[in-house]
Task: structure prediction
Amino acid sequence: MTTSTVPATPIPSRHDTACPFAPPPAYTEAASTGPVSRAELPDGSPCWLVTGYQEVRTVLSDRRFSADARRPAFPFLTEGRRELVAANPSFVRLDDPEHARLRRMVTGDFLVKRVEAMRPEIQQIVDDALDRMTAGGGPADLVAEFALPVPSLVICLLLGVPYEDREVFQTNSRLLLATDGDDREVARAQEELLVYLTRLAEQKRARPGEDTLSRLAVRDDLTVDEIARTGLLLLVAGHETTANMIALSTALLLRHPEQAARLADPAAVPGAVEELLRVLTILHMGVPRLAVEDVELGGTLIRAGDGVMAMLSTANRDDALFGTEGRLGVGEVDLDRDSRRHVAFGFGVHQCLGQPLARAELQIALGTLFRRLPGLRPAVPEQALEFRTEALVYGLRSLPVTW
Result:
């Protein structure tokens, strides 16, 4: 058992990457020195950077690592975000049994069987979005006209949120996920969304429908505050993550038209989506945990009270597991690769609840896009694209395309 003597890796509050489709170089460099290394949060406090595949899975599944953001030493990128999350934690920021109690109440809405039944509706949403995007003949912004509306409409349908209110949750979601925003603005955005969802939950408690929020609202073992916090998590995560994956996946495939052509075969689409999830891993900055006991991990002793950042992006580039041979960037994308063991959705009891829905949306959106528009191509040089380098969820601000 050892302690790391390598200089601490600074964890930036912004994405810093030479290749827009690769993790920040500091993380890959840290991974090259070993699966666990010393790191430093933006406020100067120490933590551990866990970059190895097996070690990341251990952190995310071992109960000696806590997800409870209310613990005093829990690692955060900013102090303001600590106060915000600790005051209104969703179930992903809690440990069992609180986590399990709240998560179980919405699990049924995201089961594979439920999602499979939604495929015709998702397909219609995708077709309608493409019809609107192509009606003008191009060029078009794929983010504004396709990548963002599709998951927004789907999550609104599932949760029972009026799509006409999308400006409320899309604008405030972007503020909540920004890493360089003013703490007061971020707090205001969260409060506005919680007030909105509280009112919606009260309306559904009086007049329930067939949607997820209605099902939660009629329960007598949930407070309106708990419903609003759960709705906030599902609403923000349900459209932001998938929207960014659709846009980034499209941009990456446009660099590789021979790979994009593979999506014309419906049988190739599910495997392609897994490879894209692995390569792009849009949570570049990792998943925070706090050690609650001494743990030996990757030959390094992590003490109780130490903060840990589990880096999904580097875990998903494990040479031995995925055969990436140490290559980084777009050159490694291979839609024939078996990428099913990736951890883009996390691992353990906290892994992404919505992964069946995200997979279905990505498969339908990307498969339909490249089948209907085989001549899809960028409308601007790649260097002109603006990436969301200041967000917890990595993505694109816009993606001008033509066909």
User: Anything to note?
Assistant: Residues 224-255 form the longest helix (32 residues). The first strand starts at residue 9 and ends at 10.
